[in-house]
Write a structure and sequence with these properties.
Layout: H1 3-18, H2 35-54, H3 75-96, E1 101-102, E2 109-110, H4 113-133, H5 141-159, E3 171-176, E4 186-192, E5 195-199, E6 207-211, H6 213-220, E7 232-235, H7 237-245
Helix pairs in contact: 1-3, 1-4, 2-3, 2-4, 4-5, 5-6
């Protein structure tokens, strides 16, 4: 998967979904937010990440200090602002070098880490907008599967410092039903004494969840329930429920 092209495409799709919509529409999956706030969050977030990279920051950037962080009032200009922010990330990474370490909320990472992070920020928030508008949402299986990978990588790091979403020895298995994903559509997570470990190995698990990669992604980031996504759950449902209760929103 070309994450650079995917970032541009997903950002554009997010903008086109919102273009012309009532900006005061509530976003139920982001309680308290409207489409206007969701749009600004994604657009400013891209410029925030681009500035972290461009300035080679080793500490967090105050969102209030983001250059050109407010979208124009005119709709077409706002969409241009959104899309140019995504391109700015790619340009910034190209300028400093993909492997240059910069600040991230998971600790120092290569600058290119931000491309993938902002890609999946766009995919999930496009789902938020689609849910708010009652619009159709489709995500390529390989993008959805990589989004699950990226989410588990984050949870694995954060579980080392916080309460683990899986008790030691407990296992959770996810299986994507999409054709062609192969091992990339299998995830086995195991609770350890220090957090969680995960791999693409096939396994039974104390609990197993089966469905499309898109529906699995939306379930693990709590944008829809297993029932809403038509997911099948096998084994100890409390393991799946506990995972959701103890992972970020």
């Amino acid at each position: 998967m070309d994450v650079r092209a995917a970032l541009i495409e997903e950002t554009a799709a997010f903008g086109e979904l919102i273009r012309g919509a009532d900006q005061e529409t509530p976003v139920p999956t982001c309680p308290g937010w409207t489409l206007r706030q969701l749009f600004r969050h994604v657009g400013r977030g891209n410029r925030w990440a681009a500035q972290i990279v461009a300035d080679r920051l080793d500490t967090a950037l105050d969102p209030r200090e983001v250059r050109d962080g407010k979208p124009p009032d005119e709709a077409d200009a706002a969409i241009d602002w959104l899309n140019s922010g995504a391109q700015l990330i790619l340009d910034s990474v190209g300028a400093v070098g993909a492997d240059t370490e910069v600040w991230t909320f998971l600790g120092p990472r290569p600058a290119q880490w931000w491309i993938r992070r902002r890609l999946h920020e766009a995919t999930v928030h496009r789902a938020d907008a689609a849910i708010a508008l009652g619009a159709d949402f489709r995500l390529a299986p390989e993008v959805a599967a990589d989004g699950i990978d990226e989410w588990f990588e984050r949870v694995a790091v954060e579980a080392q410092a916080e309460a683990s979403p899986l008790s030691p020895g407990k296992t959770l298995h996810l299986h994507a039903t999409d054709d062609g994903l192969g091992a990339a559509g299998e995830w086995t997570l195991t609770g350890t004494d220090t957090g969680i470990a995960w791999s693409h190995e096939h396994g039974k698990g104390d609990a197993a969840v089966r469905g499309t990669a898109q529906d699995l992604l939306l379930a693990v980031v709590r944008r829809q329930t297993a029932a809403e996504g038509g997911l099948e759950i096998f084994g100890d449902t409390a393991v799946w429920g506990g995972w959701l209760d103890r992972t970020p929103f």
